Amino acid sequence: MPHSIRLRTFRDLLNDGAVVDDPERIATYTTDQRQLFTGAALAVLKPTMTKQVADIVRLAAQLGIGIVPQGGNTSYCGGATPDASGRQIIVSLERMDKIREVDPVSMSISVDAGAILKNVQDAAANAGLLLPLSLGAEGSCRIGGNIGTNAGGLSVVRYGMTRDLLLGIEAVLADGTVVSDMRKLRKNNTGYDVKQCFVGSEGTLGIVTGAVLRLAPLPTRRATAWLKLANGAPLAELLALVRRESADLLTTFEFMTARSVALATEVLTDPPSLRAGPAGAVLVEFASSSRHLDLDELLEAVLAEAIEFGWLEDAFLAQSGSQRTAMWRLRETIPEGEKRRNGSVKHDISVPLSSIQRFLDLAGSHVRSYDVDLELSVYGHVGDGNLHYNVLVPPGVDRLEFTKRIDGSLSLQLYDTAAALGGSFSAEHGVGRFKKHLLERYGDVGRIAAMRRIKTAFDPANIMNAGAVVRPLGEKSAC
Ligand code: FAD
Ligand code: MLT
Ligand code: ZN
């Protein structure tokens, strides 16, 4: 069937303007956020309600057209980008952005999957509650994308990942069936936990159209500090001390090397004078909803102990909201700093906390023997055993060529190192299209077999984000 007729059938389902096929207008949807790959799409469809999503999926299934669900298109592994065939449609959830209900008593929020994370945080805060999911892309990523990638971010150490916040789901399966399970229950042991199948599925099992998320009491007090790590400071021990003494109030423990801090400093118009110590810096935060606790006093006492052990060269406690914001801005601007410098080859690894120093030592020696002139930007959510071990693209060097070269050589050494320590090649950024070969290389054979069966059971015709994450049963490996 010619393209124009196929498109007309979709136009018949949706309102005017909801089917966009003008190449210029869809360019930002067909290129991944890091601009590593540009695919092609028949069109971008923008439904406004769940029924329209179900109609689209049913029609696509009839016509044999593939579907790529898309939220904010901020993910890092190309999972939201169509392939090059031009035979897939992108279903963007951007027009499904309503906050459906905030329930302060049940401490939950029900939203459309296209709601922007920041707007959901704000709606919760207006009701005196906290949506404890926070990441640098929160102004543009959407809840469906957060579920699709099982996003982590900056407060996982206290509240867990997206998976831990999901109470209920509404989703459209590959044949148009609607799973409508928007309940707010903490307890519901009634068979398979279907909603969890969608978490981290990166659009390969169905389209999430709604979600119920768990909220927490809104912190009214925070104590935030910038720590300059002394030479040889043991990161895991420092974290253990801070965590143990924090009375479970630790919400953030973010590590940054001096190079990463400098990258952020270079792009900020009014950068704070904070620097890293010889072994880097840590941004640490305690938060509590209680008005009766003196968090500054608690954090100060903990840090005094760390200084006594010789682990810190210095520590600065934020004395005001603006000092706190400045510390956070420095941390959150690192990805932008990398981008402005010429980009980086990202390695979003995790290892057990007990192996984090070992990983840093081994990875450092791999990098030095690969090319002693390479520069690194290493930082991350060390509270979760997650490091962004990024190799900076040298100035003046072609970013895509460099990425390809590193991906096929040094990256594998770094991932091998993480794997040998019981770690992961993707802690929070997913698999998408870019890391499929890594799943095949490092994934447990039985686990991959189970994933392929789940994929095929949910989507026998392989229309949902084909080419991402995992091969369905019967498809040969291209690796
Ligand atoms: P998209 O990129 O649009 O999609 C991601 C995947 O989910 C795709 O496979 C897509 O097909 C699928 N998908 C999207 N919507 C749906 C849906 N409704 N139903 C089913 N599948 C769907 N990530 C972290 O985990 N932690 C961080 O700290 C972090 N920091 C970041 C900082 C910056 C500056 C940037 C640019 C990104 C960062 N990310 C981080 C990555 C990214 O923001 C997250 O992966 C985010 O969850 C993606 O959401 P999105 O709406 O942009 O999803
Ligand atoms: C972050 O933690 O800032 C992101 O996950 C990493 C990145 O943007 O490279
Ligand atoms: Zn991160």
TrEMBL record:
Any GO BP? respiratory electron transport chain
Please name the InterPro entries in this protein's record: FAD-bd_oxidored_4_C, FAD-bd_PCMH, FAD-bd_PCMH-like_sf, FAD-bd_PCMH_sub1, FAD-bd_PCMH_sub2, FAD-linked_Oxase-like_C, FAD-oxidored/transferase_4, Oxid_FAD_bind_N
Keyword terms: FAD, Flavoprotein
Q: Which GO molecular function entries does the Swiss-Prot or TrEMBL record give?
A: catalytic activity; FAD binding
Q: The FAD-binding PCMH-type domain covers which part of the protein? A: 37-218
One short Pfam family name for this protein?
A: FAD-oxidase_C
Q: Which cofactor does it need?
A: FAD
Read off the PANTHER family from this record: BLL6224 PROTEIN (PTHR43716:SF2), D-2-HYDROXYGLUTARATE DEHYDROGENASE, MITOCHONDRIAL (PTHR43716)
The UniProt family comment states: Belongs to the FAD-binding oxidoreductase/transferase type 4 family.
Which protein, by its recorded name, is this? FAD-binding oxidoreductase
- What is the originating organism of this protein? Bradyrhizobium japonicum
